[in-house]
Prior knowledge:
Number of strands: 13
Distance between the termini: 22 Å
Oligomer: single chain
Amino acid sequence: MIYLDNAATSFPKPKCIIRDLSCCLKKYCGNPGRSSHRLSLLASEAIYSVREEIAELLSVKSPENVVFTLNATYALNLAIKTFIKEKCHVLTSDFEHNSVIRPLEALKRKIGVEYSAFCTEGDIEKSIKDSLRSDTKGIVASIASNVTGDSISLKIISKIAAECNLFLIVDASQAIGHTMIDLTDTPCDVLCAPAHKALFGIQGCGFAVFKDNRLRDSFIEGGSGSESISPLMPALLPERYEAGTLCTPAIVALGSGLKYIKAHGIENIEKHLMILTEELSERLASIPGIKLYKTGIGIASFNLGELPSSAVSAQLDKYGICTRGGLHCAPSIHKKLGTLEQGAVRVSLSYINSKADIDEFYRVMKCIKE
């Protein structure tokens, strides 16, 4: 099998992640922050060390500002619904995932929030500034498309947010782990990401990294392991947003993935993916009848004639190649590409993929075309 669906979930996981996950489950998977025995303390220490790993990766000073969630969607809901409490206007990009669009749509129907998209083609800074309104309060945007890999400069949107006094919520789901992100140089109010994509963790974990620990409304309430006598959630991060038991094994797996990335070097990972993406794009473009859409680091989407993308993806699966056809939970960009009806076949790579994988994919696609 050749796995080319890493934008959904990376697979296979490096051996070190499986090893560390197994060790956690076998040796110290107590309930973190809820007891004083050694297994609980070991679990708490392991979780805090992962906060430190995330803070180091993103150049964040305070590990306590790292809040663990179920996934990136939960993190985005947390960020969006705690920052937007009244009717206002919010900007997004024109390639947003439903994890951004649906929370904003819910707030539109609930409290009258309005949102619109800036164009990611050409001069993005001009596009954003031209899209601002007198009631614009913030920007909620992905910095890389999950369909094409097309990217937005975090430096540009961070600069605009600071100049115009806007809050900035960043969806880094498709960028983190593939390219360097430095929140000291390019600050945002909240950065949201999953563990299970390019960070090589497992499903069931994501995180939101807050710029500060200002008191905001709680998002979900329950046990926190501290201030138990109070009927309210604790005021400080991360406990304010981490109600209930954290998924220790998934967080430990994330920490192992972060160490794996550090060991191999983010620059080397980015270079490897760029080489593979270029090779993949050239191979696809050489096949008659293939319509290749704009590609970005680690991602290429295409269609074969007028065939439904789901049918092409299913045919690839018969040859043992995993891709994803359809709309990828991102109708905004499919509307832009003109593929709302057909969808697209997405090929998404990870650092573990090789040129041999691209060669075999190319061979199979030529067979399918014939």
